[in-house]
Amino acid sequence: MEPVTLILLLAGLILLTFGADILVKGASSLAGALGISPLVIGLTVVAFGTSAPEMAVSVSSAWSGSADIAVGNVVGSNICNVLLILGLSAVAASLVVQKQLVRFDIPIMIFFSLLVLAMGLDKDISRLDGAILFTGIVAYTVFLIREARREGVSTVAGAEAIESSPMWKNIAFIAVGLGMLILGSQWLVDGAVAIAKYAGLSELVIGLTIVAVGTSLPELATSVMASLKGERDIAIGNVLGSNIFNIGAVLGISGLVAPNGLPVAASSLTLDIPVMILVALACLPVFLTRYTVTRTDGFAFLLCYAAYVTYLVMSTQNSPLLPTLAPALLVLVTACVAWWMLDVIRYLKRESP
């Protein structure tokens, strides 16, 4: 491995850290100036902005014919967003969940995830499928912004200190932060992909793991930074909004620009897309219980993500340990799901009259 690769990785990490800090400041200021809740800013401006790397990678891959990376990047990013990014954000600080997410945004995320499976059953995401997905994200965004403007927010955290801040300055903070995040993530992805190819990993696994995590680094840096700064609505909104945007806009546009649509690998239909759906479904019991994502939930998310990535890499390498490891990983994931369900049952018992 060349020294320049390590330099790019380090420089990318530095850009991500400072870019996330600037973006969170700009987003929270913009929310206060517009009278829109930080949650809506997180679900739209921040989420769509931090998903720019996914858009760039998937659309360019689809256009060039590397469909495995295009589809794998979206599916892998959505899994990474919840299990890794939300997990790390919750470990940094327990996250309070607004009821709107449980009632509207999580069901939308689950619906979009199921739609990917339904569209992929014929092993192809056609241009018509892409158009349907893109229409869905446009409708979701318009509805979200209209509802936010209709309801309004009389007081936003930190609004007193923000009102005097010029609008152009807020927008400039967001633009500069996003630029630093995108450039930093690109440097990290380039180095990581080079290392992965040297190790002999397939394009699909690279898309599901290295590229997925790399293009999710803006979400990771932004959500963790927002959590540490107390802007927890931005942290959660960024994750859920990114997942919805990834399917509706990133996969939708990729399907539209692909010369012959996006072929969906059999392994994606049997493992990766079902895992993405299960991860989306897992948000309901976790978020519903006390409307809080606790540090314990965060650690459980991280364990599940480690199990998923371990299985992917070992299955690609045809590891002789896989037959022994697979049942252990299944037990680990089952234990996490059982913990969440028991937590929900305890919550419902406490709330019942």
CATH-defined superfamily = NCX, central ion-binding region
Alpha-beta classification = mainly alpha
Number of strands: 4
Per CATH, the class reads Mainly Alpha
Poorly predicted regions = 153-164
Order of helices and strands: HHHHEHEHHHHHHEHEHH
In the sheet with the most strands, the strands line up as 1-4
What would the average pLDDT be, to the nearest integer? 76
Q: Could you say which overall geometry the principal axes of the C-alpha atoms support?
A: globular
Can you tell me the CATH topology? A middle domain of Talin 1
Q: Strand percentage, roughly? A: under 5%
CATH architecture: Up-down Bundle
Largest sheet: 2 strands, antiparallel
What is the CA-based Rg, rounded?
20 Å
Distance between the termini: 64 Å
Helical content stands at: over 70%
Tally the structural domains.
1
Number of contiguous helices: 14
Quick overview:
The chain has 353 residues and is mostly helical. The chain has helices at 3-34, 38-50, 52-64, 67-92, 99-120, 127-151, 159-162, 167-198, 203-215, 217-228, 232-257, 266-288, 295-316, 322-351; strands spanning 95-96, 124-125, 262-263, 292-293.
Describe this structure in words.
- The chain has 353 residues and is mainly α.
- It has a single domain, classed as Up-down Bundle (A middle domain of Talin 1), CATH 1.20.1420.
- Helix content is 83%, strand content 2%.
- It is built from 14 helices and four strands.
- It has helices at residues 3-34, 38-50, 52-64, 67-92, 99-120, 127-151, 159-162, 167-198, 203-215, 217-228, 232-257, 266-288, 295-316, 322-351, and strands at 95-96, 124-125, 262-263, 292-293.
- The strands form two sheets. It has a two-stranded antiparallel sheet. The protein has a two-stranded antiparallel ribbon with strand order 2-3.
- The model is unreliable at 153-164 (pLDDT under 50).
